Structures are given as structure tokens and as C-alpha cells.
Amino acid sequence: MTDPAIVVRNLSKTYGSGDRAVRALDHVSLSIEPGTVFGLLGPNGAGKTTLIKALTGITDITEGDASVAGFDIRRNPREAKARIGWVAAEVILDDDFTARENLWLQAKLQSLTNWESRADDLLQYFSLKDRADDKVSHFSTGMRKKLEIALALLHQPRVIFMDEPTIGLDVSTRRMLWDIVTQVHKEFQVTVLLTTHYIEEADALCDRVAIIDHGRILAEGTPSELKARVKADIVQLETSETLDPAVLAAIPGVQEARAQGNDWLIRVASSEGFLPQLFRTVRTDAIRRISVEKPSLETVFLEVTGRRIGEEEPMRDVRKFYMQMARARR
């Protein structure tokens, strides 16, 4: 059997000490098979980036241990790092350099030799060959992302970490990047650990997904396996008047009904059976809005955390704001 590409055992990370101690990761355990796309799905502040920093040796591990590409990240950090590529959410390119010069700089930083033919192949693969000697400042967002992935692949890593790679991108560029991620891990035979807070991204790209929140892994499986654990439909209801919770709970098929004022989140065995009963129980003119969700990764997240992803994130794209400000100052 092939050894896992990434192994994490009871890994914890605590910042600070005493009363000011903050546990960013809380006994996380994962085993990621080689050649797969594994997703870490969670809101900002869930611990996704901290885990990547721990796996790349950027931050120390407080408890537990981890290995990447067969090398213990604490005992053999150099060997592990030599087999890791990283695509960050933040811009890592030098705008004053050409595409080829950015690859040259990456090669120098990693002490690579005979890298030129590899760079040419990557530029060709990502359709950047004809722009290789153009400054990156003239590149579109999609071209920049392609070049960033080319940099991550230059030293032929076995594992690539992609930390929120599509944050702040428009829909068309995000879809393009999805296609690239799907192709790259097969073409270059790398394992991809992808962090995201986009539900549809995890569903579309990942062979397996782990839901992380407050530094803990709350659920893990294939997207299909995770959806199968939610044996209910979610009905969102907004009314113009206050309802008695007991009235809703008495409707056949209702598993749970939670209220925030006149907004209701209702778990039901079958929305098709519940809705006719609801309309017979509640006056239709008192219903302002109603929607139904079938099992999805969104409902799985709701199931295991008790809230929707992004519910407490008024500035979820704060990094996009800072990236835009940084570019504006140039």
C-alpha cells in the first residue's frame, strides 16, 4: 500500500500563554492519500492557515506531530520542505519582473540547478510562453494565478498547499482556476491540500473534505459521504408574526425548529411532506419568505457547527481588500 502524503496526529497549536493563550488548532488528526485533492473547509479563523504553517514548518507545533511526503516536519524539516509547493492567497509575484525572471528568482531561492527547461515546460503548459518576457504587472489576474502555480511546481514537489487560492477572484477566474487545479494534480502527480471557505469550491474540487471550525476537525469524508450524513431537508422560514415553537414542532416530520425572532430554521425528514402541513398550520399571508435546501456541504456545515459558514464574517474577504490597497500604492 502507498504511504499517505500527509499525516497529522493530535496536532495542537497554542499562541501565547496563561490567560492570554489562544488554541488555534485543537488535536487535529488527518491522513491524506497521495494523488488526491483534499479540502479543508471552514470560515476565516477556523485554523486552516495555521495548519498549513505548521505543516510547512513556518510555525512551531505545540503538541502532536506531522509528516509530509514521508518526512517528519519536526525532525526532518528540510527534506519535507523540499517536497512542498505553496500557492498563497496573497500575491507572491514581483510585478517589476517578467514571468521568466519570477521563475529565475524562485529557482535561486530554492537553489535549483538545470531549471530552465522545466520553467519553459511550465510556461508552455500554462499558455504563458508567448508572455514569458513581459512584466507581470501587465498580466491579468488569471495569468498571475497560473504563474504562481508554475512557481509552486518548479522544484517538482510531491505536495502542494493551496491556501484560499481563489479568494477575491471574480467568478470566471475562479472557475478557470478550478479547472487548473483539477488538471494539475493529475498531470504533475501531486497531492493538493486546499483550504477554502467556499462551499461550492470544496464540493467541485475535492476528493475528500474535512470541516474545520475553532481549530477542530468536526467531520471528514468524500462530499457524497458528508452529504449522506444529513438525513434531513432544511427549511428556512420568515414570518410577519411570532409563532409558537410547539406548533411547528408538532408538525409531522419536524426534527428541529430553531428561531431567531421571526426567522426559523427547521429540519424536516422531507420538505415535500412538510410544506403542505406547514401551509395548513400557518396562515399563508403571515409567511414572508420560505426556502428549501436539500442535503449539501452547506447543510453539513450547518449540521456540525450549528451555523452557516460566513455567518459571523462581515469582512470575509479582508485579504482581498489589503491586496487591492497594496496594488494601488504601487
Question: Can you describe this structure?
Answer:
- By secondary structure, the chain is α/β, with parallel strands linked by helices.
- Among the domains are: 6-83 and 157-227, Rossmann fold; 232-294, Alpha-Beta Plaits (2-Layer Sandwich), CATH 3.30.70.920.
- It has helices at 48-55, 77-81, 99-109, 116-125, 141-153, 171-187, 199-205, 223-228, 245-249, 271-281, 297-305, 318-328, and strands spanning 6-15, 22-32, 37-41, 63-68, 71-72, 84-87, 159-163, 191-196, 208-213, 216-221, 233-239, 254-260, 263-268, 287-293.
- It has a six-stranded mixed beta sheet, sandwiched between helices.
- The termini are far apart.
Show the helix and strand layout.
Layout: E1 6-15, E2 22-32, E3 37-41, H1 48-55, E4 63-68, E5 71-72, H2 77-81, E6 84-87, H3 99-109, H4 116-125, H5 141-153, E7 159-163, H6 171-187, E8 191-196, H7 199-205, E9 208-213, E10 216-221, H8 223-228, E11 233-239, H9 245-249, E12 254-260, E13 263-268, H10 271-281, E14 287-293, H11 297-305, H12 318-328
Parallel strand pairs: 3-8, 3-9, 6-7, 7-8
Antiparallel strand pairs: 1-2, 1-4, 4-5, 9-10, 11-13, 11-14, 12-13
Which descriptors would you attach to this protein?
330 residues, alpha/beta, Rossmann fold, Alpha-Beta Plaits, 6-stranded mixed sheet, 4-stranded antiparallel sheet, 12 helices, 27% strand, elongated
